Amino acid sequence: MRRERIKEGGDFIIIHLNLKMGAKEMNKVLYVNLTKKEIRVEERGDLFDEYLGGSGVAIKLLEEECPQGIDPLSASNPIIFAVGPLTALYPSASKTVAMFKSPLTGNLGESHTGGRSAMAIKLAGYGAMVIKGSSDLPLYLAIHGDEVKFRDASSIWGIEAVAVGRILREVEPGAGVRTIIRIGRAGEKMVRYACAVCETYRHFGRLGLGAVMGSKKLKAIVISADKSIEIPKGKRREYKLVYDEIQDVVVETDAMEKYHDLGTAGKIYDLNKIGGMAYKNLKSARALEEIARELSGENFAEKFLSRRVSCSHCPVGCIHLASLRELYEPGYYFKTSIIPYDNETIYALGFMLGMNRAEDCLRLIDVVDRIGMDAISTGVTLAWATEAYERGIITKEHTDGLELQWGDVQAYSEAIEKIVMMPNEFYQNLAKGSEYASSVYGGQEYALAFGGNEMPEYHTGIACYLNNLLGARHSHLDSAGYDLDQKLMGKEFTLEEVVRALLKEEEWRQILSSLVVCFFARKVFTAERVTKALDAIGIGNWTEGKLEDLGRVIHRAKMDFKFREGVDLAKLRIPKRIFEVPTPHGLLREEDIKKAIEMYGRLI
Ligand code: SF4
Fold first, then answer.
1. Ligand 1 pocket, 319 CB below 6 A?
2. Is the pLDDT of residue 9 over 60?
3. Does 518 contact ligand 1 (Cβ within 6 A)?
4. Atom in ligand 1 nearest the alpha carbon of residue 518
């Protein structure tokens, strides 16, 4: 791994920047009104002192700014971006939290990304940004430190997300610490699971941030930074020691090694081997051996890996880029596409859709990436549609002539285009996700959405499904139930132990996402190291106990937001399919899941 060291002695200089801020002084929130084309900046030390930053501050801003019961695609829905106290100061504290009301689930929308977004927001001088209102004409925001410009985006409306980045890089100043967050055509058309693309290979993937940006006619946000952070006098030696300790754990131990080597795709083969990988809409939890080998991280690395890249200020380099060389047309030249891949994209657009060839999986990832859709929701929604077509509840009339068949990359590419173009009612419904489409056409027993959000790859046991159902974002990253399932293999455990373990994990993750550190670095940022890291930048008075308490408070605030928006745990839909296919722990029982949900409701 690449190793970075801070300079010995003197000031720690991250990059050539103009203005210095204290580590404690980034409590500014930039409020942008797209309707009135107005901005204001407020000092919100009240929020940052109590909730650190990231998710903690974002949920409080969401409570303040999001009126109860609003349409998520209305001008009143705020988009909140927040970074944290460790951002730009420690390795792998490289993420930005986006929060909004989700147009996919109708409640809490939260998505995280890296790239250069966190560094750019923080070094532009902001701890958070709140974007409200909507524009009549397409626009993009250009935020260069204190200067905010509303720029006409008519000429880039309709252009794919990747190309928008290339264009704005040319016309906007501030190369260096600069981020470009933008949407593709799916966001413009408000596909409910459209994503926002950041720095080409990173995404605010889940829960429809792209659709919310599209509803505001906000094509892109460019943020460039020109400030630096000053460590308080008297703390510099301590800061350097803590920085070095964190850097050493990141690069010298095995804490994050797997993310660099094969990346998250490295777990695919073993997950399939234990029978924990959803395949063809979870008709099975294990693909054939040759397919698992073909779609494994090892095969992607051997045949296609061209390079690895990192988010800013992270030495890990977990972002794996494949190089796919294809003929344009017989007799013409070749084109080479650079395509990011990971476990989730390979699962959703490979395993779930019955792909037999890694190349086909990469082609679909490329289509989804260019069009700007969440890969997981797209793959799972198309998997539902394929099974529904197989069973005859939807026909060629619905699909506009397409034959949806497992492994047919051409048909799926065309279906994705149709989801965006919405030529008929069927595709309009498919653009609202599998929960909605199955409520219209039937087939809910095999529509694999939980709380309205499409499932990740894991069919590992009860913990992964409790995570999907009860997690505040209905994301596998809420409490990593898949991980708990695998740790519990071969062991005796009670339902209550599982529920308590998931809750504890989700509460601690509120702290990680408030700081905001990458979840891949969760073994690095232990409670003890977090308190040291905060103290070394002059943000003292945080004990491990106080952090744990805060995690609980933030988690409850998120759940309260969901309850406020109508979520009822007792009414969560549980797709029957998950009880029909054995997990590595055997068949799941509906009564156990219902009991666990009740237990969870009593604990929070
Ligand atoms: S581990 Fe990967 S995703 Fe996390 S901050 Fe580093 S490069 Fe980004």
1. yes
2. no
3. yes
4. 4
Rounded to whole angstroms, the Cα distance separating 238 from 241 reads 5
Q: Cβ(279)–Cβ(354) under 8 Å? A: yes
Provide the token pair at 81.
């971006």
Residues 6+ apart with CB under 8 A from 48: 26, 27, 57, 85, 127
Q: Please indicate whether residue 316, judged by its CB atom, sits closer than 6 Å to ligand 1.
A: yes
- pLDDT value for 25: 65
Please check the confidence at residue 347 and state whether its pLDDT lies above 70: yes
Q: Is 255 helix (H, G, I), strand (E, B) or coil?
A: coil
Q: Is the CB of 520 within 6 Å of ligand 1?
A: yes
User: What distance in Å separates the CA atoms of residue 185 and residue 164, rounded to the nearest whole number?
Assistant: 11
Q: What is the pLDDT of residue 19?
A: 54
Grade residue 444 by pLDDT with cuts at 50, 70 and 90: very high
Residue 20 has a pLDDT of 67
Average confidence (pLDDT) over 45-53:
96
User: Considering the chain, what percentage of its residues have pLDDT values greater than 90?
Assistant: 91
Does the beta carbon of 311 sit less than 6 angstroms from any atom of ligand 1? Answer: yes
Residue 105 has pLDDT above 60, yes or no: yes
| Residue range 200-205: mean pLDDT, rounded | 93
Q: How far apart are CA 230 and CA 211, in angstroms?
A: 38
Question: Is the distance from the beta carbon of residue 94 to the nearest atom of ligand 1 less than 6 Å?
Answer: yes
* Alpha-carbon gap, residue 250 to 314, rounded angstroms: 9
Tokens describing residue 313: 């200020």
CB 389 within 8 A of CB 441: no
Q: Does position 243 have pLDDT exceeding 50, yes or no? A: yes
Nearest atom (ligand 1) to Cα of 95: 5
Residue 512 CA to ligand 1 centre (angstroms): 14
What is the Cα–Cα distance from 180 to 151, expressed in whole angstroms?
14
| Ligand 1 atom closest to the CA of 314, numbered from 1 | 6
Is residue 330 within 8 A of residue 252, CB to CB? The reply is no
DSSP 300-342: HHHHHEEEEE--TT-S---EEEEEEEEESSTTS-EEEEEEEE-
- pTM of the prediction? 0.95
Neighbours of 395 (CB within 10 A): 10
Name which residue sits closest to atom 2 of ligand 1, judged by CA.
318
Q: How far is the CA of 314 from the centre of ligand 1 (A)?
A: 6
Q: How confident is the model at residue 293 (pLDDT cuts 50, 70, 90)?
A: very high
Could you tell me the distance, in angstroms and rounded to a whole number, from the CA of residue 557 to the centre of ligand 1?
27
CA angle 113, 348, 388 (to 5 degrees): 135
Q: What domains appear along the chain, each with residue ranges and CATH number?
A: 19-230 (3.60.9.10), 256-450 (1.10.569.10), 453-603 (1.10.599.10)
Task: Express each pLDDT in 522-565 by its tens digit.
Answer: 999 999 999 999 999 999 789 999 999 999 999 999 999 999 99
Residue range 288-310: average pLDDT?
A: 97
Sheet with 79-82, strands from edge to edge, namely: 38-43, 28-33, 128-132, 79-82, 96-101, 108-113
Whether the CB of 250 sits within 6 Å of ligand 1: no
Mean pLDDT value across the chain: 94
